[in-house]
Structure formats: C-alpha cells, structure tokens
C-alpha cells in the first residue's frame, strides 16, 4: 500500500509518499508561496535527486495536481497506486482522540473545530476537499496534532476562568505537536529497548514553534501549549505564557485592535521580539557570539523557560527517566541543549559534551552513563508517524469493505 502524506498550510503544501509499511520515503517535497506569482517547488526523488522550480501556483488544487504529476513522472505509474492519503490536521477538538477515516460525519466535526484554529484548519480542510476530488479512490485519513493530548486530565486542561466558558465555547487546553511528541517518545523506548509503559518522559519539541510534553505510560499527561499554539514556551515569533493582563493593558495604551494584538503576540514576539534581529536561532547564536546583548538576552530567556518548563513537569510524572530533544533547535543546537541541561543538574542530569557536540541532526544518547536521566536527541518524523497511522486506519477500512 502506497500512502501519500499531506500537510496543507495557508500558503504551502508539504508532502511525502511512503511505501508499504511506511518504512521508506519514495519521494517528498514542498510547494511554497501558493497564490503568489513566484511559488517555489522543491521535490526530492527517491534516489535523492532534487528538482527546484519557481512557477505560478494559484491555489492548493493546482499545487496538488503538480505534486501528483511529479509523482507519476518517476515514483508511481498511476495515481491508483496511492491507496490512502494521510492528512495532518491541526485540531481535532474534544471529540476526536485517534486517527480516523474521513467521512461526512468527520468532515462536519472538522468544520466545527475550524473556529478553534482559524489560521490552520481551513487549509487542512481544503486539502481534504481537493484530495476527495483528485484522489477519489483513496481512503482519506485525518491524523491530528491534538489527539495525543486527549489523555491530559481535566484538572490540567481546564483553565481557572468561569467554567461556563468551557461549557459554552470549549475553551480549554488542547495541546499541539502531538504527532511529534508521540513519535519521539515511541522512538526513545525503541532506542533504550524498554517498554514505553515503564518510562517517564519529557519531550522537548524546540523548533520555530516549541512545546514540552510530559509522557507517562506512553500517554500525554500535560503539555505547554494550550487552547492555541501561542501558549507555553517562548518561541521564534510567539510570546508563549505571559500575564494575560499585559494584553489588556497594551490594547488600552496603544489603542490596538484584536487583529493587531494577535499579530504582535504571534508574529512579532518571542526571540524575534526580544532580539529585534531574527526568529532563527542560528542567527541569534551568531549574533550572541559577536556580542549582541539582545540576542544574548533572547537566548537566555528561551533557555530559562525551557528548563523551567521541564522542571514544572517533574511532579506531573513523579520523576524523570528520559529527556528528549527534537525539532530544528532541539536536534541541532548543542549549545542550547547543553545550557538547558546545566540548569537541570539538580535532577541528576549529566551531559556527555562530546556526544552532545557530535549529535546534530542525528539520533543518539547524549547523557553520560552516570546520568540519572537519559538525554536523547531524536530527529522528529511526523510524516512517518502519519503514514503509519494512515495505513492502520486504511487497513481497517479495507477489511470492512471486503
Ligand atoms: P517549525 O517546523 O516549527 O517551522 P523547525 O523544527 O523546522 O520549525 O525548526 C526551525 C528552527 O530550527 C529554525 O528557526 C532555526 O532557528 C532552528 N535551527 C535549525 N538548525 C539549527 C542549528 N544548527 N542551530 C540552531 N538552531 C537551528
């Protein structure tokens, strides 16, 4: 069974096609700046050859047609070979706690969730609609960023505001990056050759967006993102947790409207907002080396918040066996990993700095044998997990049909 995995964003479509069992990527790529005059296409063939083009891609439907044409020219003979499509869906609300085959009922639920994630859901749903037209024969499966967090207990997910807002509007913590947290936790158990049920894990997904997740018995018990992906850690351009009164104060002082305050908190804050330089941690590390005070402060703030967040999950788990670093920063920045772990020495965490320097973008343990906590770098592979989950659901559908 060949599976196409799609991640439809507002102006981009990321894709990957997997073979049977999802162990091998046959081809993958991204179409960016959809809707603009110069959309960018990057396609990687199975053998590793890369095709890069600039062309006009007016909408998502056109992007998908281009992707399918590329797949037919070199990866598959016919679109009928694609048995299932796995869609990465940002929000499944409260009612969906596992990957599901998309039918009319699921689509209705997704549309209901759309207002909970207005920046992402309309594009996710658009991707499904287009695939239902172009790849009509394939089973469409939705895999959610939120479903892994459905095991978080109510005392952790309810906000201390009048309960009626939870009842009326479903305002609560949902959590995101669930596909990534689930994938790396499972992988950590495989690397350590230990049953995941026996591990207390904190996964640090540190990319442009960043979140921590406390995982026990293979289940998410808490995470730092909340009702939206704006909560929790300080991020590339997002503020993370701040005193909510700051928002009210700024709106009053600056006469800022809702759209503008949303832009400030989502796009102009985080390490970009502090440094005034960049949201990219590589730029900040370079600027800090050259003596930029603001870059130094931004990094210091980020590291402090990651370490503090990890510490806050220790009582949630009742201890810690494994600390995982993943995503762009977590996989690559040995400096940030080292500084976070130094702040956690009181937990018995001890890094092998040699291994830490060595593991950039590659998987491996970076703690010393004497460390009380195993620290592991694991490159995330959300597409692979989506493909595996999609195959499971599609097989159930095929069994039912036959
Ligand atoms: P997202 O998926 O949230 O956009 P990624 O997981 O791709 O984010 O991470 C992107 C971030 O990773 C970039 O902003 C960059 O700051 C950071 N990054 C990538 N490589 C390195 C590196 N070698 N050192 C430090 N940071 C890095």
Automatic annotation (TrEMBL):
Catalysed reactions, semicolon-separated? acetate + ATP = acetyl phosphate + ADP
Pathway it belongs to?
Metabolic intermediate biosynthesis; acetyl-CoA biosynthesis; acetyl-CoA from acetate: step 1/2
Matches recorded under CDD domains: ASKHA_NBD_AcK_PK (cd24010)
Identify the species of origin.
Answer: Desulfofundulus thermobenzoicus
What's the protein here called?
A: Acetate kinase
Query: Per the similarity annotation, which family is this?
Result: Belongs to the acetokinase family.
Q: Known Pfam families for this protein?
A: Acetate_kinase (PF00871)
GO annotation, biological process: acetate metabolic process; acetyl-CoA biosynthetic process
Provide the binding site for Mg(2+).
Answer: 7, 382
């Amino acid at each position: 069974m060949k599976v196409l995995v799609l991640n439809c964003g507002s102006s981009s479509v990321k894709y990957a096609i997997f073979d049977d069992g999802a162990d091998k990527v046959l081809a993958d790529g991204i179409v960016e700046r959809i809707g603009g005059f110069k959309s960018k296409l990057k396609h990687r063939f199975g053998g590793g050859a890369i095709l890069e083009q600039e062309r006009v891609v007016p909408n998502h439907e056109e992007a998908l047609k281009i992707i399918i044409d590329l797949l037919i020219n070199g990866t598959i003979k016919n679109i009928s070979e694609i048995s299932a499509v796995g869609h990465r869906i940002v929000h499944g609300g409260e009612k969906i706690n596992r990957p599901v085959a998309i039918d009319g009922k699921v689509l209705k639920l997704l549309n209901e969730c759309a207002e909970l994630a207005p920046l992402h859901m309309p594009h996710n749903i658009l991707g499904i609609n287009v695939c239902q037209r172009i790849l009509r024969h394939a089973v469409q499966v939705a895999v959610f960023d939120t479903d892994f967090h459905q095991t978080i207990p109510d005392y952790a997910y309810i906000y201390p505001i009048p309960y009626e807002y939870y009842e009326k509007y479903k305002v609560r913590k949902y959590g995101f990056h669930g596909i990534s947290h689930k994938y790396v936790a499972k992988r950590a158990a495989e690397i350590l050759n230990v049953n995941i049920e026996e591990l207390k894990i904190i996964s640090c997904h540190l990319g442009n967006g960043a979140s921590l997740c406390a995982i026990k018995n293979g289940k998410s018990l808490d995470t730092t993102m909340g009702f939206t992906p704006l909560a929790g850690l300080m991020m590339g351009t997002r503020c993370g947790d701040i005193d909510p009164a700051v928002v009210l104060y700024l709106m009053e002082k600056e006469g800022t409207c809702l759209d503008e305050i949303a832009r400030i908190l989502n796009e102009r804050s985080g390490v970009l907002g502090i440094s005034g330089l960049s949201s990219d941690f590589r730029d900040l590390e370079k600027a800090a080396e050259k003596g930029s005070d603001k870059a130094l402060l931004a990094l210091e703030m980020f590291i402090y918040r990651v370490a503090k967040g990890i510490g806050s999950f220790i009582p949630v788990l009742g201890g810690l066996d494994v600390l995982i670093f993943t995503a762009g920063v977590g996989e690559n920045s040995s400096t940030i990993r080292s500084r976070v772990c130094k702040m956690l020495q009181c937990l018995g965490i001890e890094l092998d700095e040699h291994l830490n320097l060595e593991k950039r973008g590659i998987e491996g343990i970076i703690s010393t044998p004497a460390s009380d906590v195993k620290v592991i770098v694991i490159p995330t592979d959300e597409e692979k997990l989506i493909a595996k989950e999609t195959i499971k659901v599609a097989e159930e559908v095929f069994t039912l049909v036959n």
